[in-house]
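Technical annex, item 7. During the second reporting period the consortium partners agreed on a shared format for inverse folding records so that results from different sites could be compared directly. Each record opens with the tokenized structure and is followed by the designed sequence. A conforming record, contributed by the partner at site C, is shown below for reference.
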């Protein structure tokens, strides 16, 4: 009996040594290269035929026409579509795709940049989308999308980023959006737990002329959203339009808007406003509908104002007497720098070390990183405070060749010499003793992990496709979305009504 046990032990040891010496083979990654002579059709063909783990490398050049395709990877072996050098596309439409990464493209000259329809766990990263009409990126009926480190400029009819119809667990993080006709980031539909964080939105609602929209909208049935650590500058219209339930708006800086910093309506419920800084010489920071007040929770906000009221008629003392902002403050600018040149530069919004906005935020929202948080661990107000304050230097993305897009008024937008970056709309982030604008800071989980992108789930997705043609004359801005499943607007081409995008976007 002992001999048998000893023999088995020896055999097990030998098997173990063999396994260690000859590990299981790892599946080789398939790399497919696409060249300009293959055109956009070559990109579409490669996507349609890709298997899990395929890496599609698109060589430098211009690829005319629409790329319309779909691909399916796995959580540990996604399909990757990546640009090599400066790759210019007209438009990219991705359908029924799972675990796909799209990275590094320049997209320009069409009605839309990148559209997702009926997808799950797609990453859209470090793309430069400019001079389009309808939108830079649309997420339509797609779940667990991660939209990060993209730069979107000059959308002349609608929005920068558009989350449409439905979607669960969508994350919009560390993007730069400038000069849109209506909204910077537009959330409209049955969106469950969307996260919008660390985005810089500059002069939305103003391009090519003033139209009036919002920096961020949250409407049409969206629920349990987190809007945090975003910087909004010189917004044409509302700073944020919040007409749905459960929005947590915290640690944002709103510097300049036309009508209201935050606009609500009777459909706004359980809104939380915490640790935000509002800066305006004349416009009221809050437009709070009477029906939204019973479930409103506003506290620890800082208001830098002229002589205007907090709401349309309430001075700060009356606002506090109503039970709101009991720990709130009014006063002079808490920032270490001024932004006299009106630059979309996050570093200009670092707090002065002795400011009363340091360590005076909600105690439960501790600063994740020191720096950029100042003082003790208790939360600072504004974009460099709170649990999502891990800004670093990569948030405003560079193009693959190391250049960055030209300024918004450039007649020849495109990469410019790196020495010009400092004057390019203030993109260079000052040292300020912190890492800012992008890559995950020390000790943090990756964006993919924190957003559930690698969750391994692939629930069934509605087969409806994104719009065949751009909506063009309307986006349903500020109203409940038209039921796509009933009207079939994705295929029938029935245009949505051109809802009034004026002062109240209701």
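Designed sequence (site C submission):
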């Amino acid at each position: 009996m002992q001999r048998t046990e000893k023999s088995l032990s020896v055999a097990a040891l030998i098997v173990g040594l063999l396994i260690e010496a000859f590990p299981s083979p790892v599946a080789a990654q398939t790399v497919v290269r696409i060249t300009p002579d293959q055109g956009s059709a070559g990109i579409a063909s490669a996507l349609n035929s890709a298997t899990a783990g395929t890496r599609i490398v698109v060589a430098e050049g211009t690829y005319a026409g629409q790329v319309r395709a779909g691909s399916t990877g796995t959580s540990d072996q996604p399909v990757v579509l990546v640009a090599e050098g400066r790759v210019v596309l007209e438009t990219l439409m991705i359908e029924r795709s799972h675990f796909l990464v799209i990275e590094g493209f320049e997209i320009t000259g069409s009605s839309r940049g990148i559209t997702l329809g009926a997808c799950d766990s797609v990453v859209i990263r470090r793309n430069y989308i400019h001079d389009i009409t309808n939108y830079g990126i649309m997420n339509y009926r797609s779940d667990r999308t991660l939209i990060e480190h993209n730069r979107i400029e000059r959308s002349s009819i609608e929005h920068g980023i558009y989350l449409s119809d439905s979607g669960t667990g969508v994350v919009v993080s560390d993007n730069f959006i400038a000069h849109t006709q209506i909204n910077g980031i537009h959330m409209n539909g049955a969106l469950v737990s969307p996260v919008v964080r660390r985005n810089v939105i500059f002069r939305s609602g103003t391009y090519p002329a003033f139209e009036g929209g919002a920096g961020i909208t949250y409407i049409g049935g969206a629920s349990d959203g987190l809007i945090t650590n975003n910087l909004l500058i010189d917004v044409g219209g509302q700073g944020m339009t919040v007409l749905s339930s459960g929005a947590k708006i915290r640690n944002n800086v709103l510097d300049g808007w036309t009508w209201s910093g935050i606009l609500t309506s009777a459909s706004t419920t359980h809104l939380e406003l915490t640790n935000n800084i509002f800066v305006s010489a004349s416009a009221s920071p809050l437009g709070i509908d009477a029906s939204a007040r019973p479930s409103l929770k506003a506290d620890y906000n800082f208001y830098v104002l002229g002589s205007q009221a907090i709401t349309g008629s309430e001075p700060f003392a009356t606002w506090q007497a109503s039970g709101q902002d009991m720990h709130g403050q009014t006063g002079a600018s808490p920032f270490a720098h001024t932004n006299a040149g009106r630059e979309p530069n996050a570093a200009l919004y670092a707090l002065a070390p002795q400011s009363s906005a340091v360590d005076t935020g909600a105690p439960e929202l501790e600063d994740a990183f020191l720096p950029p948080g100042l003082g003790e661990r208790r939360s600072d107000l504004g974009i460099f405070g709170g649990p999502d304050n891990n800004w670093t230097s990569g948030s405003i993305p560079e193009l693959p060749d190391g250049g960055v897009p030209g300024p918004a008024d450039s007649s020849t937008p495109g990469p410019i010499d790196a020495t010009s970056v400092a004057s390019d709309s203030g993109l260079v982030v000052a040292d300020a003793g912190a890492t800012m604008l992008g890559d995950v800071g020390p000790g943090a989980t990756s964006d993919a992990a924190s957003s559930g992108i690698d969750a391994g789930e692939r629930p069934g997705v509605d087969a409806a496709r994104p719009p065949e043609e751009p909506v063009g004359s309307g986006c349903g801005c500020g109203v409940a979305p038209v039921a796509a499943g009933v009207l079939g607007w994705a295929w029938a081409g029935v245009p949505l009504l051109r809802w009034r995008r004026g002062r109240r976007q209701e």
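Helices lie at 2-21, 39-49, 316-321, 447-451, 484-487, 489-492. The first helix runs from residue 2 to 21. All partners now use this format for quarterly exchanges.
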